[in-house]
Structure formats: C-alpha cells, structure tokens
Write a structure and sequence with these properties.
The protein folds into 2 domains: 121 residues, Rossmann fold (3-Layer(aba) Sandwich); 106 residues, Rossmann fold (3-Layer(aba) Sandwich), CATH 3.40.50. It has a 4-stranded parallel beta sheet with strand order 2-1-3-4, with helices on both faces. A 3-stranded parallel beta sheet has the order 6-5-7, with helices on both faces. Helix 3 links the parallel strand 3 and strand 4. It starts with a strand and ends in a 32-residue tail after the last helix. The protein is an alpha/beta fold and 248 residues long. Helix 4 packs across helix 9 and helix 6 runs parallel beside helix 8.
Amino acid sequence: MVSIAYLVPGTGLPDEEKQRRETVANDLVPADVSVIAAEDGPKSIESTIEEEWAVTGLARLVDRHEDEFDGFVIGCFGDPGLASLRELTRTPVVGPAETAFHTAAQVADTFACLDILDATEPQTHRMLREYGLSDRASVRVVDAPVGDIDHDSSDLIDRMIRIGRVAVEEDGADALVPGCMSLAFMQAGDEIGEELGVPFVDPVAISLETATTWARHGLTHSPTTYHPAPREKLGGLLDRSPPVDADD
C-alpha cells in the first residue's frame, strides 16, 4: 500500500480535527494517509499573502518527509506553492484545486466553484485562468470563513445547496466543486449532489486518489516542466540542503 502525506499549510487546525481528517482520508482511498501540519504559517488561508506565507512551511515539510511518503497532497484548495514544491522533489505533489477543476471539466461541460468568501473569489478566478478553465466555470460565494466552518453544520450544508442551486439555474453549472478543503471535509457532497441533481466533485477524495494513482504507477511531474530546485542555494529555507549531484 502506498503512503500519502496530506500537508496542512499552517497552524490553525486543532489536533482533534487533524485526527478526524486523517480518519476520513484513510476511509476514502486505498492508501496509508497521514495528516501532517506545518510548524509555522498562517492560521487559515483566506488571502493571497497568506497563501504565499504558507509556502515556506510546506517546502520544509516536503523536504523533511520526502523519503517517508510516496506522494503529497497540498491541504489547501488554493494549491499554494504547487509549482515550487514540484521543483523541490521528485515525489508526486498534487494540488486539490487543479485535480478537482479538471475532473469537473471531464464530467461536465460547465461547473461552478462554491467559494468561501468574497475576498477569496479573485484568487479562485486566477486559478481557473491559470488552469485554462475560466471559460467553463463560474464562482459563487457561500460566505463561510474557514475558522467558522463546522463539519456538523446543517445550516452550512443548506447554504451550499441554496448557492449551488443558483449556480446551476443561473450560471448553467453542470457540476459543483467546493472551493475550500474545510468545506470538502464536511463530506456532504452526496447530499448536495443528490439535492441538486449534478455531480459534486470532492477535492479531498479526488486529490488523494490522484496522488495514490500516480504513486502506484510510478508517475510524477516532468523535470523539464518543473526543473529541480538548486538545493545548494536553499540553506536558509530548508532544514536540510544536501548538495545535488551534477549528473542528476
């Protein structure tokens, strides 16, 4: 069985929630999943500057644990540091937004992302443009700050259904994607999808399954797209920076 590390890019997740997410993750995919949190960084990620702040902690996690796992999943829907982390390691690194958006584009002509805040909506539009899917997607806001998301909240599920219905009826969305891993870890997708009659693409399951599949088949990102980082120059960033063999 392959081992996957789900990397929490900050310090705001309580220990009991880390354990719950680890249990959920291991129930979703045929892999040994460990939830590992950065030692520093933002408490939550609700802005571009918090995303960029989180990358240092993620880089240190990948550097420290790359020999222990067969794949990594970034535990934030904004995919912070995805390209940077792929430069840092040959171990597969998966971004939940990239995988969920492209999956939604495979199962539907159009889709909508249910974003958490007005403040994060521009970041989501930027990601959609970067991933080449902006002409097939809309963004709707459910107004749910990360720190207020309760995985047992029926009110929040009702709100996601209400906003999702607007996306389906007014935007023509044929599938839905929750734009936050805390929303996704509510694991309410079956209920929401059944209520609205369209696929609900779960970025938790999709990203973990993608990392597991890549690891099982020996697939990882291309070194000609993500050129290996110059580790000899990263001593101030990483916990360990061994010299790179010139022949590698």
